[in-house]
Amino acid sequence: MTVKVPRSGTRGVAFPRFPGRMSRLVAALFRRGLGRSVGAVPTLILETRGAKSGQARQAVLGFWAEPPDAWLIVASMGAATWNPGWLHNLAHEPDATIELAGGERIAVRAETVVGDDLEAAWGRIATDSRQYSDYRTKTDREIAVVRLHRRREA
């Protein structure tokens, strides 16, 4: 399993870069029961380790459950020209943790969705959220879809 970071684009939507303080505020609101969905899409907190800093990083992201033990997330950044930091972090270290509503924490391993599986994933994403599918038309970069698999401890 690997995570690949596509090249940045040349066309996209202006999207603010969130400082750590803002990310922590959004995560705190999530934990208090606010912001648990983006439209009809539920959200989770993805916890990664910074590829450069080694520091713990958090991102609140929409997800699509794939029962019993996987989740899809989209590296859209609101159709910005660049890829989100969490994608770079997962490419450096694919082991991460997610936190679901209610506080359940799950160790996961990430992989980039590719080929026919990617098109099927985008079909599902488009069905559930027009907002996410529209991002593909607003930027010229390839928007990665990542599957998070529950890690099995040995």
Summary of the model, kept short:
With 154 residues, the chain is of the alpha+beta class. It is 28% helix and 29% strand.
Supply database-style keywords.
154 residues; 8 strands; globular; 4 helices; 29% strand
Summarize the structure in words.
Strands 1, 2, 3, 4, 5, 6, 7 and 8 form an 8-stranded antiparallel beta sheet that branches. Helix 3 (115-128) crosses helix 4. The protein has helices at residues 20-31, 85-92, 115-128, 130-138; strands spanning 37-38, 41-49, 56-62, 64-66, 70-74, 95-99, 105-112, 145-150. 28% of the residues are buried. The chain has 154 residues and is an alpha+beta fold. It has a single domain, classed as Roll (Pnp Oxidase, Chain A), CATH 2.30.110. The longest helix has 14 residues, at 115-128. It is built from 4 helices and 8 strands.
